[in-house]
Amino acid sequence: MDGSQESGATGLHLVARFGLVTQLRDLLEEIPVSEINSRDPYSQTPLVLAVRHGHWDIINIILDNSNVDPNLTDDDGRSPLSIASQLGYSSVVEKLLSTGETDLNPPASDGWPPLMYASRGNHTEVIKLLLADKKIHANFTSPDGQTALNLAVEMGLTDVVRLLPESSRVETNPSDSTSRDTFMVALENGDKDVIHLLLEYGYTNAIETLTLPSSAGLVPTVGLGRRPGG
Question: Which of 28, 78, 101, 169 could form a disulfide with 82 if both were Cys (CB 3.0 to 4.6 A apart)?
């Protein structure tokens, strides 16, 4: 198989895309070392293609190559870690993090880092892996004012809302771009499960009125403005 194609994709891109392990090993013995980081017309590297299509053996081989750059992004600014986080590929995330070279917080073109993609996808195992790394920016705020926690609250993802505050680095009271704090978003959505989780994990903003309107009707605030036992 020739190393280059007129389209801009190379043989390495093709074997990564289709998960051809034997052909990958053969190519890596023949091509210049720099080609491991070559881009196709969509700026996808072989690693990006392998991650996007879930070819674990290909990912393993590429990441074991000392010349690979695990942080190169596609046309949408998404790194291999962002893609794996979005798709919920926890084993791929774990492998990427194990290299020690992977950037945990690269925002894609939409301003979202890997943790936000994992949060939106309800991928709790990926979230655990990301939060376990001290280099994670757990409260990263996107240009539209979203954080991973705000996003999970807005979408009613109780497993993620339960998980994120367990990390001491995640703020429980962030505000979005409209200055609505996390608790107000939950109230507006009428999501009682999320409301109680926020209280359990340290929501401390004072609530002065006796009742607050929400899409679920009036929500009593007795006991809601203080932490349990407060």
Answer: 78
Contact predicate 122/90, CB 8 Å: no
Please state the domain extents for the chain. Answer: 7-58
The per-residue b/e assignment along 117-142, b for 16 or more CB within 10 angstroms, e otherwise, is: bbbbbebbebbebbbeeeebebbbbb
> Tokens 């301003």, residue?
111
Q: What is the DSSP string of 64-86?
A: TSTT--TT---TT---HHHHHHH
Rg (CA), the chain: 21
CA distance 115 to 131: 8
The angle formed by the CA atoms of residues 170, 133 and 120, to the nearest 5 degrees, is 55
Residue 199's pLDDT is: 87
CATH H-level, domain 7-58: superfamily = Ankyrin repeat-containing domain (1.25.40.20)
Phi-psi region for residue 183, left (φ > 0), alpha (ψ -120 to 50) or beta?
A: alpha
Q: What is residue 183's predicted lDDT score, i.e. its pLDDT? A: 84
Contact between 191 and 183 (Cβ < 8 Å): no
Q: Which of 180, 181, 177 is nearest to 203 (CA)?
A: 181
- Are the C-beta atoms of residues 177 and 151 closer than 8 Å to each other? no
Query: Model-level pTM?
Result: 0.85
Structural contact between residues 150 and 182, judged by C-beta atoms closer than 8 angstroms: yes
